[in-house]
Amino acid sequence: METLSYQQFSEIDLNDPFFLTLKNDYEEFPRWFEKKSEDRECAYVLRDRSYKIEGFMYLKIENGVVTDTTPSLGDATHLKIGTFKFDSAGTRRGERFIKKIFDHAIKFCVDDIYVTIFDKHDYLIKLMQRYGFNIIGTKNTINGNENVLLRDIRGVSGNMMHDYPKFDVRSNNKYLLSIYPKFHTRMLPDSILCSESHDVIQDVSHSNSIHKIYLCAMEGLTEFKPGDIVVTYRTSDQLGNARFRSVITSVCVVEEYKNIGYFNNLQSFLDYASSYSVFTEQELTSFFNSKRYPHILRFMYNTAMTKRVIREKLIEVVGLPEDAYWGVMKLTDEQFNNMLCLGEVDARFIIN
């Protein structure tokens, strides 16, 4: 399994073959890398099962006017994606890095994010544009001209992807969605229970991609519409009383709902579900043949709760009825807002 870690430069081997193209593209790269190591700075590193590097990303906060781009970037707090490269092997790999970019942007309250990319890295340009980055200028360097791509965090476009990780709470339905621990562990970060703090910067779970597909048998999913908001509820792991072991963990936005009957054959179903599903291909094949889990939900993982709120508080403080069905539960705006407050979700995620 691939591992994404947040490491000091001094712990990363610059002689790994992964860095060869960066050395070729930027003649000053080895000198820059050594300086970052001396300064004890950190970067995200993706490694395969044999510990070979397959992805690298360095992020930096810059304050004030950025003058080395044309046009200059205004007086603001910028998050610069200083170095970003990964060996493409499916959509999730790039998304894991994109997720961390936005985690940093929110945590450090930046106004915008920018990155410079050569034309030849068109796959990377397309990935950034998918999440709302626009080419707004160029940067002239000794290595050639690079495109400058910018994402303004302060604006709202009305496009779920371009506004990610923000979510619109103004007119959307809100739901609680229960997920069994064994599936939750595969799909969403799962390390913190109760009310302990959750650090989005250090959370580098393999499951930390942006898009998710979940199958279940709960009829309530048929009501879900694009843009609706889901609060995920991790049910008890049976290691203690559910009042203290069941927690809300994340805020997500629905992209679409499908019934498994929509797919005419197994291959079309696998093509749709396998990339983002928590289930293995063998499990998916079994589900397709048996139709055991007919309801398919695709959603975006927008943010983890900074604090995980236990069932007891959901009953006593939020006001969720204890005797109601918690598999799929429609929430009032007041209940949802209380969950955001108790979960200490950063207000910068919220479009209202």
What are the key terms here?
single chain; 352 residues; alpha+beta; seven-stranded mixed sheet; six-stranded mixed sheet; 34% strand
> Looking at the structure, what is the overall shape?
globular
Rounded to the nearest angstrom, the distance between the terminal CA atoms is: 39 Å
Low-confidence stretches: 194-198
**Major β-sheet annotation:** 7 strands, mixed
Helix content: 25-40%
| Average residue pLDDT | 89
Structural class: alpha+beta
Number of helices: 11
Radius of gyration: 21 Å
Helix and strand pattern: EHHEEEHEHEEHEEHEEHEHHEHEHE
Query: How many strand elements?
Result: 15
Give the neighbour order of strands across the main sheet. 1-2-3-4-5-7-6
Strand residues, percent: 25-35%
Q: Describe it for me?
A:
The protein is 26% helix and 34% strand. The chain starts with a strand and ends with a strand. It has eleven helices and 15 strands. By secondary structure, it is an alpha+beta fold. The strands form three sheets. It has a seven-stranded mixed β-sheet, with helices on one face. The protein has a six-stranded mixed β-sheet with strand order 10-13-12-11-9-14. The longest helix is centred in the N-terminal third of the chain and has 17 residues. Helix 8 packs across helix 9. The protein is globular, with a radius of gyration of 21 Å.
